[in-house]
Design a protein that fits this description.
Blueprint (H helix, E strand, L loop, with lengths): L18 E7 L3 E10 L2 E11 L6 H4 L4 H21 L3 E6 L1 H5 L3 H12 L3 E3 L2 H12 L9 E7 L4 E7 L6 E8 L3 H8 L10 H14 L1 H7 L1 H6 L3 E6 L1 H10 L7 H4 L3 E2 L1 H12 L3 H6 L11 H14 L5 E4 L3 H16 L3
Parallel strand pairs: 1-4, 4-5, 6-9, 9-11
Antiparallel strand pairs: 1-2, 2-3, 6-7, 7-8, 10-11
Helix pairs in contact: 2-4, 5-15, 6-14, 7-14, 10-12, 10-14, 12-14
C-alpha cells in the first residue's frame, strides 16, 4: 500500500520513499519504529515507546493479567494509528518472552488482532537472538573474531556468541536465561528493607547469573578467547543504556549520546553500587530512570554485574538498538529483493 495524502501525516509527500513498521512487544515495553530505507540502513520517520509491563504477575500466575493486557492494548492502539497514518507498505510485529510463557497467549494475540488489526508473531529465542544481532550489526568490530551480544530483557536475558571470521558476523550459539528485570523484580519485591535492596540479596542474584553462564562458557571456550583479547561485548537493553547514561552524567536519557558509546566494567560496578545505596524514591527521582522503572533497575544491574563477572570484557559497547532495527532491516532487504532489476 502506498502512502496517500488522506492517511499520511501532515507534510509527508505521497511520492516519498515507502515506510516500513516494526513493533517489539516485550515483557516490559511496547516499542514501535517506522522508517524509510536509506543507503545500507534506514532513516527513522516516527517511533513510539511505552512501558506496559505485559509480564506483570506472569511468574506467579502463568497467565497475562487483565490489567497488563489492557495497558498493552492501549499502547498497541497508538501503534496501529501511527502505522495507518503513515501508510506503511510492509510491517512485522513480534512478541517475546512474556507471550512465550503465558498460557493465554493465543487468546491475547487474537484479541490484539480483533481490537487493533495488528498481527503479533510470537518468536522463539533463536529468532530473537538473530534479530538482535541484525539490529546491532553496525556496532560490531570485525577486527575481533568473536562477539558476545548481551540482551537483558523484561522476562529473560539472552547471550549470543557470534563469529566474525570470514566477513559477515554469524550467530554460532545463544543461551536464554530465565532472568529478566520484571520477573526478577517481582521475586525480590519482599526483600527490600526500608525501600532498599540489601547488598547480600543483590550479590546473590549476580552470582546466580554468573553460575548459569558457566556451561555455555565452557562449551565454547569463551573465557579463553576473552583472555586472548579476541572478544568484543555489546550490551543492548534498558539496563545497559541506563547505566551508561548515568555514567555519562546525563540528567535525562538521550539516545544520541548513549548509543555506540563505551563503558568499562569499573564504571558499571561504580554506577550499579551507587544505585544500590538509593531507596526507591531516590531511584525514581533519577532522570535516567524515572518512577516507572525505579523498581526494575536494580534487578537489571545485578544481571549485568553477573554477566560482566563471568565474562570480563573491557570496555563494553552500549547499544540502544536491537529487535526493531533487525526487523526493519529484514523488511527493507525483502522489499529490495522483490523489486525488478
Amino acid at each position: 500500500m502506498e502512502a496517500h495524502d488522506d492517511i499520511a501525516p501532515a507534510g509527508v509527500r505521497p511520492d516519498a520513499e515507502p515506510v516500513f513498521a516494526a513493533i517489539d512487544l516485550g515483557t516490559n515495553n511496547c516499542r514501535l519504529m517506522l522508517a524509510r530505507a536509506r543507503g545500507e540502513g534506514f532513516a527513522i520517520v516516527d517511533s513510539f515507546s511505552r512501558i506496559v509491563r505485559l509480564g506483570e504477575g506472569l511468574a506467579r500466575n502463568g497467565r497475562l493479567m487483565d490489567t497488563a493486557i489492557d495497558r498493552t492494548m492501549q499502547a498497541l492502539e497508538v501503534c496501529a494509528g501511527k502505522i495507518q497514518r503513515w501508510g506503511v507498505i510492509d510491517q512485522r510485529h513480534i512478541a517475546t518472552e512474556a507471550c512465550r510463557r503465558a498460557a493465554n497467549c493465543d487468546e491475547f494475540v487474537a484479541g490484539v488482532a480483533a481490537r487493533t488489526g495488528l498481527a503479533l508473531e510470537i518468536i522463539p529465542p533463536r529468532e530473537e537472538a538473530r534479530l538482535a544481532l541484525a539490529g546491532c550489526m553496525a556496532l560490531i568490530n570485525q577486527r575481533q573474531p568473536r562477539v558476545l551480544l548481551i540482551d537483558i530483557g523484561g522476562g529473560s536475558t539472552e547471550a549470543s556468541w557470534i563469529s566474525t571470521d570470514g566477513g559477515k558476523p554469524e550467530l554460532i550459539d545463544f543461551i536464554s536465561l530465565p532472568y529478566g528485570v520484571v520477573t526478577l523484580s517481582e521475586q525480590i519485591a519482599d526483600d527490600y528493607v526500608c525501600n532498599r535492596l540489601p547488598l547480600q540479596r543483590y550479590e546473590a542474584i549476580a552470582a546466580q547469573v554468573t553460575e548459569k553462564l558457566n556451561e555455555f562458557d565452557a562449551r565454547h571456550n569463551i573465557s579463553a578467547a576473552i583472555a586472548r583479547r579476541e572478544v568484543q561485548m555489546i550490551g543492548t537493553s534498558g539496563t545497559v543504556t541506563t547505566v551508561a547514561a548515568i555514567n555519562l552524567g546525563l540528567r535525562r536519557y538521550n539516545r544520541s549520546q548513549v548509543d555506540g558509546t563505551l563503558i568499562t566494567r569499573g564504571a558499571i560496578n561504580m554506577v550499579c553500587r551507587s544505585l544500590l545505596l538509593e531507596n526507591l524514591a531516590g531511584l525514581a527521582a533519577n532522570g535516567c530512570i524515572g518512577p516507572e522503572r525505579a523498581d526494575l533497575v536494580l534487578a537489571g544491574c545485578a544481571i549485568l554485574e553477573g554477566v560482566s563477572k563471568r565474562w570480563p570484557v573491557d570496555p563494553i559497547v552500549v547499544a540502544d538498538r536491537g529487535l526493531r532495527e533487525g526487523v526493519l532491516l529484514d523488511l527493507i532487504r525483502r522489499d529490495r529483493a522483490n523489486k525488478p532489476v
